[in-house]
């Protein structure tokens, strides 16, 4: 696996949530996704929740076409809990990657990975269905080596490590070093098992460079909240460029 550092997938859920505060069509997730791609983002990520409080189901075909029209290897990533309705949405919109997460519908955001031992049969069946449709499949995982052998046995292509525990150490350098070491050991194990590695949750301009140095094999980082916050100061294009630079292998 070439150690080039992760590519940036911009999660536009926060943008969609801001739009949904009013009965108005702005800010437009599609227009801002185009800006992000033109500024250097590799892809766009969405998490269409059952109550549509963030991205709406009607956004998906629009964003799918936008990413396809951009070309240059741009990718569309749809993440969510693999309910029958979610799988129908995925198969109708055919993203490049689907990231399966174990969320309860009432959760405000993803905050834990799958129990791979308990969900082995379900995930194996679901992964097979998605891969038969030609989609790359990533499974949301806690930052630990536990259960990664089972994740690989499901047939998944990648795991996305939940980096929330690392992000939560923003004010404690010692805790950050320990969390990054744990995350890195999990990533190393995934690579040994032949799994690609994605990362996501609470990643920022300050904590990305150490992560990339420790895990240069990471394929993708999905970032929404912090990037959207930085866009208030830098503009969206400026924030995307800053995050792309922060993820370069030094």
What does this structure look like?
This protein is of the alpha/beta class and 250 residues long. It has a single domain, classed as Aldolase class I (TIM Barrel), CATH 3.20.20. It is 44% helix and 16% strand. The chain contains eleven helices and eight strands. It has an eight-stranded parallel β-barrel, surrounded by six helices. α3 links the parallel β2 and β3. α2 runs parallel beside α3. It is globular and about 45 Å long. The protein starts with 6 loop residues before the first strand and ends with a helix.
**Silhouette:** globular
CATH topology label: TIM Barrel
Helix content: 40-55%
CATH class membership: Alpha Beta
| CATH architectural grouping | Alpha-Beta Barrel
* CATH superfamily annotation: Aldolase class I
Question: How many domain regions?
Answer: 1
Low-confidence segments, given as residue ranges, are none
Count of helix runs: 11
Number of extended strands: 8
Q: What's the helix-strand series?
A: EHHEHEHEHEHEHHEHEHH
Proportion of residues in extended strands: 15-25%
What's the N-to-C terminus distance? 17 Å
Major sheet characteristics: 8 strands, parallel, barrel
Mean pLDDT, to the nearest integer, reads 95
């Amino acid at each position: 696996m070439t150690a080039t550092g992760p590519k940036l997938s911009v999660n536009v859920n926060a943008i969609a949530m801001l739009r949904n505060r009013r009965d108005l069509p702005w800010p437009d997730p599609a227009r801002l996704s185009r800006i992000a791609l033109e500024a250097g983002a590799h892809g766009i990520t969405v998490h269409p929740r059952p109550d549509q409080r963030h991205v709406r189901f009607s956004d998906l075909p629009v964003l799918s076409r936008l990413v396809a029209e951009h070309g240059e290897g741009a990718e569309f990533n749809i993440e969510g809990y693999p309910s029958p309705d979610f799988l129908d949405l995925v198969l109708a919109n055919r993203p490049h990657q689907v990231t399966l997460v174990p969320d309860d519908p009432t959760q405000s955001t993803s905050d834990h990975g799958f129990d791979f031992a308990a969900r082995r049969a379900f995930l194996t069946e679901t992964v097979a269905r998605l891969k038969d449709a030609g989609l790359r499949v990533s499974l949301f995982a806690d930052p630990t080596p536990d259960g990664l052998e089972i994740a690989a046995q499901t047939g998944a292509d990648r795991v996305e490590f939940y980096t929330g525990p690392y992000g939560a150490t923003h004010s404690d350098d010692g805790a950050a070093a320990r969390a990054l070491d744990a995350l890195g050991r999990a990533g190393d194990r995934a690579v040994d098992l032949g799994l690609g590695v994605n990362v996501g949750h609470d990643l920022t301009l300050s904590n990305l460079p150490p992560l990339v140095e420790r895990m240069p094999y990471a394929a993708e980082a999905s970032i929404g909240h912090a990037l959207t916050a930085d866009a208030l100061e830098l503009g969206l294009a400026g924030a995307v460029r800053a995050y792309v630079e922060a993820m370069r292998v030094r």
